[in-house]
Amino acid sequence: MLNIDLNAQYFHPTIAGHWKTDSLPDFIGIIAGDGTMLALEETEDYVDRRPRYDIRPAGLTSIDSFAGNPENYFNEVTPYIHRAPIIGTEAYAICGEGVMGNEGFVAVVNPRGLVWAACFSVSNPFYEVRVVDHCVAATSTHEIIWRFPVVRPWEIGFTYLDF
Question: Which of 45, 47, 81, 147 has its CB surrounded by the most CB atoms within 10 Å?
Fold first, then answer.
């Protein structure tokens, strides 16, 4: 699907320019710093009034194709200050929220820019991020831990913290 190298210099001018101003494409999926975009299909169900998710790859596109459509736009994101280093690399994980209360994002960046960002409309904001066993573990305000393998972020897993 995507080739993720945590130490590479990913640079697509459109992605890099927007990332510097804390904005990302209004897109559900994985946005790579090189301009590749993997759309994800989100399915949300409820069990005992608690959300349960099924997230699946839906198709590849690019930032050039996305930006070429006048109906598409970029949204401001609010990254939280907490950073989780990825051992053995210069990269680290961050998380935050989009402009609506239901949106959240998780990203991996290195000193040269955005490596990848995963954006969702059903997640709620992510407020905590850690790196555990080569996975970015991000906790949403639904108290669900979303796990993203660092080099295969589309293989999302979940830990549901039922209280």
Answer: 147
Tokens at 61, concatenated: 């596109």
The pTM of this model reads 0.93
> For residue 40, what are the β-bridge partners?
57
pLDDT at 24: 96
Q: What are phi and psi of 115, to 5 degrees?
A: -90, -55
Q: 97-106 b/e with 16+ CB inside 10 Å = b?
A: bbeeeebbbb
CA gap 37, 155 in Å, rounded: 15
Q: Measured between alpha carbons, how far is 97 from 112 in angstroms, rounded to an integer? A: 22
The residues that bridge with 116 in the sheet, in sequence order, are: 32, 108
Percent of the chain at pLDDT > 70 equals 98
Distance CA(127)–CA(82), nearest Å, equals: 9
Contact 60, 27 (CB under 8 A): no
